[in-house]
Amino acid sequence: MICWSCEREAGGGPVCAACGAVQPPDVAADHFAVLGVDARFAIDLGDLEARYKDLSRRLHPDRFAKADPRARRASLERTVQLNEAWRTLRDPVRRVEYLLGRAGVKLAADELPPRMLAEILELREELAEARAGHDDAKVRRMAADVQGRADRAMRLIAAGLDGGTAAGLAVAARELAALRYWRRFLDEVEAHEERRAEAGGHAG
Prior knowledge:
Blueprint: H1 31-35, H2 45-59, H3 69-90, H4 92-102, H5 114-132, H6 136-163, H7 166-203
Helix pairs in contact: 2-3, 3-4, 4-7, 5-6, 5-7, 6-7
């Protein structure tokens, strides 16, 4: 790529290797390429965060507030692209969705086999009864059980994505739909516990 500023070869990075000018983003680059990591589900989140923070510092628009208008625009566009890549890849569910989308897998809107859907509805009813009855011990037991289910779904998703076969991707897509339900369940439990803690604080 030729640098817009010095008209020399800029190299492959976000900043020209010759003159240091920030370069416009490659709009075709995927989120993994933006952060410089391999396109796979298993990611070192510590490394990912370090890359994100380093690029954020180097590309932040504040650093280019008095620069050429093209540099300011490139900085802003790079930062928007970088933030979207970080938001997607740091979250396991969004990362799965993104990888499946890259592989051409069409994601249904939380479609589940009838048996699994019935089981989930039953668990939600049981949770509602436990919450209404202030049975916090049961709520915690249910949360632990569902967390185990979520962890299992994540393992199956990782195996399916790593395999790269059509069957593996289908398993990953199915388990992703289940994982969304498990996470919503756990979010409800967390909200319940926060409300209980607040009520306890007010009572004290």
